[in-house]
Write a structure and sequence with these properties.
Keywords: Signal. InterPro entries: G5_dom, Glycopeptide_resist_protein, Vancomycin_resist_VanW, YoaR-like_PG-bd. This is VanW-like protein. By secondary structure, this protein is an alpha+beta fold. Among the domains are: 92 residues, no CATH class; 249 residues, no CATH class. The chain has twelve helices and 29 strands. The strands form eleven sheets. The protein has a four-stranded antiparallel sheet, with helices on one face. Strands 2-1-3 form a three-stranded antiparallel sheet, with no helix packed on it. A three-stranded mixed sheet has the order 6-5-13. Helix 1 packs across helix 6 and helix 4 runs antiparallel to helix 5.
């Protein structure tokens, strides 16, 4: 029987070696040696038998064994029974427990096959992520070098959970099932590659920056308007970064140990804008002018600065122009000054005050060019340079004017100031039928009268009243688009419905009851009459252009109307 049992032990040992499984007895790890045919279980049984015979002899020769000795023997025996019960493995064999380990043949690209447990695998994947975060690289674009890091690209392991799930399959089931899986791996090893992913926006930004360093990049044709005529610079073919293959190289580099220089793949590429396309820009699609003659010099400066930033924008089909993005940041450093503006129904001083008139003028030109108005919001209060519902406001990042080229050919936005006029003209290829005209009609549905607000000033004599700023009526209005063909109306469409708050006239009111003590006069002074609303301009504060004299309500917009005059 011993010889047969020894052969079983040898087989188990061989099975364990192939499966990559350790064997433990009790709390400690032991190896089954083929050279020793006597298993631990047999040895334990033999020792127990001898121990029992010894105890019988002892009891025969000395029947005066103490109670404490017997108790000690019972205490020693109890843990052996418990351990034997706990050490039953999946096969029911007592005294042998298999430790669940990852078998040979299961590997992870970049980590090798030396990962023995699931915990070790998880730690190794975390370590790989940490290395990626700290790793830098250099991208070579036609000899020009650009340094960056994988952290900047947002590199991460996207299939970590899948890898751990696949590995866990080899640690579940009983010993025979795991042995079968391990045997399959020996014949056909499994090597899983961690999937590296980048942040899409970060990659696009990086490749755009890299393409700018590319000395052989394709050059788009350009267009600008000089002295009343268009000048077109032809395009040039070149080589651009192949995004897909270059990104694949970057992902492979994440798994490598050392930092390296990655040579970007480039492909021959035609420019995205050609001189032939730009040659279509020759017709006025829509134009509009507003006047700011009543503006302060600071507000006039803001309109001139903002308009210059909007001039010369080329929009290819489907592209969008954002007024806020073109004109911001509204800072002193960017050329703007403090001027009047609206905020939450109040007139305040703001850097860049007047930008809304630029937005409004663009909006009106875009309506006439019939390109898509992607975003437009009205002011909180009425403005004086266009009729109700004809305005467009800019405020932070929550109010903007955005227009999109919905045509099949490119368009060009020309923006200029002349004197105290600001004009937007949208150029392109006219393809609308001859005899077709459009007009825009403002309809006021209701009005809320403005009131009067007084600010008491005890530095002024009682009876002094002076208007500080002019208010506006509140209004609810609509803007309609009317299309005519050969003078006959064919359509009338609602463009917008808008609500404007009222703004009261603001007056400074004197409250001083008696004149302050004055030094004794050398000669009698003449009596001064009470100050009135017609006092000189010394006490007058410049009102914002948004509160210029209101435009009279005509049936339709006049593109050449100069409100405020």
């Amino acid at each position: 029987m011993r010889k047969k049992t020894g052969n079983i032990a040898v087989a188990v040992a061989a099975f364990m070696a192939v499966a990559g499984l350790g064997i433990s007895s009790g709390a400690g790890r032991v190896d089954v040696l083929a050279a020793n045919p006597q298993t631990k279980a047999e040895k334990a049984n033999s020792d127990e038998s001898k121990k029992s015979e010894s105890k019988t002899d002892d009891k025969s020769s000395d029947k005066k064994a103490t109670k404490s000795d017997a108790s000690k023997e019972e205490t020693t025996a109890a843990p052996e029974t418990t351990a034997n019960e706990e050490n039953k493995d999946e096969l029911g064999n007592q005294g042998i427990q298999a430790e669940k380990r990852l078998p040979k043949g299961f590997g992870i690209e970049g980590l090798g096959e030396n990962i023995s447990t699931l915990d070790a695998l998880s730690n190794a994947l975390n370590s790989l992520q940490e290395k990626a975060d700290a790793k830098k690289f250099v991208l070579d674009v036609k000899g020009e070098k650009l340094e960056s890091s994988f952290a900047e690209l947002g590199a991460g392991i996207s299939n970590k959970e899948f890898i751990l799930s696949e590995a866990e399959k080899f640690t579940t089931g009983n010993m025979l099932e795991r042995f079968a899986k391990s045997s399959e791996l020996l014949e056909k090893p499994e090597n899983i590659t961690p999937d590296i992913e980048f942040n899409d926006d970060a990659v696009k930004s990086f490749l755009k920056k890299a393409n700018r360093k590319n000395p052989d990049a394709p050059v788009d044709a350009t267009i600008k308007r000089v002295n009343g005529a268009f000048e077109i610079t032809p395009e040039k073919e070149g080589y651009a970064i192949d995004a897909d293959s270059t990104v694949a190289k970057l992902k492979d580099a994440v798994l490598k140990d050392k930092e390296e220089t990655i040579v970007a793949d480039v492909t021959k590429q035609k420019p995205s804008v050609t001189a032939e396309e730009l040659g279509n820009i020759k017709d006025v699609l829509g134009t509009f002018t507003t006047n700011y003659s009543s503006s302060t010099s600071e507000r006039a400066t803001n309109i001139a600065v903002g308009t210059a930033k909007m001039d010369g924008v080329l929009l290819m089909p489907g592209e969008t122009l954002s007024g806020y993005e073109r004109m911001q940041p509204f800072t002193i450093k960017n050329g703007y000054k403090m001027a009047k503006a609206y905020q939450n129904g109040l007139v305040i001083d703001s850097v860049g005050g007047g930008a809304c008139q630029i937005a409004t003028t663009l909006y009106q030109a875009a309506l006439r060019a019939e390109i898509t108005i992607t975003e437009r919001k009205n002011h909180s209060m009425i403005v004086g340079y266009v009729q109700p519902s004809g305005d467009a406001a800019i405020a932070g990042d929550y109010k903007d004017i955005k227009v999109t080229n919905n045509r099949k050919t490119p368009i060009y936005v020309e923006a200029v100031t002349s004197g105290r006029d600001v004009t937007f003209t949208i150029w392109g290829k006219e393809d609308r039928p001859a005899g077709r005209t459009i007009e825009f009609v403002s309809e006021v549905l209701s009005e809320t009268p403005k009131g009067k607000t007084y600010i008491d000033d005890d530095s002024k004599s009682k009876g002094y009243i002076k208007r500080q700023s002019e208010g506006h009526k509140g209004r609810v209005s609509k803007l309609w688009k009317i299309v005519k063909e050969n003078g006959v109306e064919v359509s009338k469409d609602l463009i917008s419905s808008d609500t404007y708050r009222k703004a009261d006239d603001i007056y400074i009111r004197g409250t001083r009851h008696s004149a302050p003590a004055a030094p004794a006069p050398v000669a009698p002074a003449p009596t001064q009459a009470p100050e009135s609303d017609n006092s000189g301009p010394a006490d007058t504060q410049a009102a914002p252009e948004a509160q210029a004299p209101e435009v009279s309500q005509g049936p339709a917009f006049d593109p050449n109307l100069n409100p405020g005059q």
